[in-house]
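User: Okay, second chain of the day. Same drill as before: sequence in, structure tokens out.
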Amino acid sequence: MNKLLRSDPGPVAFHNPPPPDNKSSSEATASPPRTMSPLQLLAMLLIATTTPEPRERRRREEEEEEEEEEEERRKYDLVFRRGDLLEVSRTLFTHFGIYLGGDR
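Assistant: Same drill. Structure tokens below.
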């Protein structure tokens, strides 16, 4: 029970500054820190990672969409070739007033 109510959390490796040396104050401030806090590490990672700009991202998405549309068009170009006979229903001709004969 006494351990649960303890106010001193003990030494924390990431948050405790290094012990002061017996050097002059200018040398102590010039030396780099020996430990890095998790927040400093996270900030360094977030700043160091680059994300593409929104304009660049939009341009890439548009290019990908255009490529997909082009692939769809090419797919149908490969199925039909010039001179192929296509089946068309009679109702399409009669709709436009084309007489096909046979009293129809």
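Residues 52-80 form one domain.

User: Thanks, on to the next one.
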